[in-house]
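Quick question, first post here. What does this chain look like in 3D?
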Amino acid sequence: KLFLGKWLEKLPGVLVHGYVLFFIAISFVIFNANGMGEALQDLSGMFGLSGVPFVNETTLYYLRSYATVLLLGMVGSAPVLPKLIEKAKSRKKLAAVMNWLEPAVYVALLAAATAYLVDGSFNPFLYFRF
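> Answer (accepted):
Ran it through. C-alpha cells below.
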C-alpha cells in the first residue's frame, strides 16, 4: 500500500480485494513452509508450474466434496447478505424477526465451522511449530 496506494485507489474494489487476497495467499504459503525450497515448490504448484495438471481426479473429488462449503464461503464473503439484513431490519415487521434470527444464524454457522474443524483430520495449532 505504501508504494502502490495511489494506483490501487483508482482500481475497482473487486480488483483491490483480489490483489489483497493474492498476496495473502502467497504470504500464507511462505509462512507455512519449512524452508524457501518448500515455499518455492508450493508456489510453483499453485501457479501450475510443477507439471501437475490443473484439473485431475483429485481436484474434481475435492471440488465435489466441498462445493457447498465453497459456495457458502463465496456468498458469505460478499457484502450481499449484510445489505439484505439491513434492508430487512428497516421494515418494522421483519425487524423483530431479524433481531432474533440473525444471532441464531451466526451461532449455527459457528457450530458448522467447528464441526468441520473437528471432523477434519489432524489440525495442529499453527504456532506450535514456533
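The mean pLDDT is 83.
Helices lie at 5-10, 13-32, 36-46, 57-77, 80-89, 92-119.
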